[in-house]
Amino acid sequence: METKKLVVNYYRQGDTLWLHIHPDRPAREEMTEYDFYIRYDRDTPNEIVGFKVLDFSHFAVHLYEQGVVPVLPWRFSVEGTEVRDVTLQGVLEWSYRHYILGEKTADMEMFVPSSSLSLEYAPSSQTSLPLREEPGEGYKTSNDS
User: Fold this and answer.
1) Of the candidates 88, 89, 97, which has an alpha carbon nearest to the alpha carbon of residue 129?
2) What per-residue confidence (pLDDT) applies to 1?
3) Pairing of strands 36-41, 27-31
4) What is the structure's pLDDT at 119?
5) Which has the closest alpha carbon to 78: 56, 97, 101?
6) 30: Cα within 13 Å, side-chain hemisphere
7) What pLDDT score does 105 carry?
8) CA gyration radius for the chain?
């Protein structure tokens, strides 16, 4: 399976996550039914050059729901990090933990590729991500009411 390099940028003010496979290529965007944008090269219409997620802090808690994240025949490595050979879901989970929750070191165990994991559904040992609360209120998991 091919591994692609990703440049990841998060813009906190707009709560937007950008995942660039080819950062300098002009692209057109198509939105999935889950508000996940797939960016295609303008000159080569079927070539994916990146992804964009608006309202990322709210989107991310749904990462492991069936069909939310597109299934791709690739794995990814995030430039400038130790995140290597992970699914798109793994990149999105790392991004949530890093940018939204502020975790400084990734638990690389959850990103270790395993032949027992399916590309369609590959949850870590924790399938519900903590929700971001208003400042000063702490965190709760999506299993809490």
Assistant:
1) 97
2) 85
3) antiparallel
4) 29
5) 97
6) 10
7) 58
8) 15
Contact yes or no for 73/51 (Cβ under 8 A) = no
Alpha carbons 79 and 45: distance in angstroms, whole number: 25
- Show the beta-strand stretches assigned E in 12-142: 16-20, 27-31, 36-41, 48-53, 74-78, 130-132, 139-141
Give the tens place of pLDDT for each residue, 88-124. 999 999 999 999 999 875 544 444 433 332 323 333 4
Closest CA to 69 of 96, 54, 87, 57: 87
132 with 58: CB under 8 angstroms? no
**Burial degree of 51 (CB within 10 A; 0-12, 13-18, 19+):** buried
Query: How many structural domains is the chain composed of?
Result: 1
Count of H-run helices and E-run strands, the chain: 2, 8
Find the length of the chain. 145
Domain that holds residue 137: 2-141
Compute the distance between CA of residue 68 and CA of residue 59 in angstroms, rounded to an integer: 9
Residue 24 in this model has a pLDDT that exceeds 60: yes
φ, ψ of residue 81 to 5 degrees: the values are: -135, 180
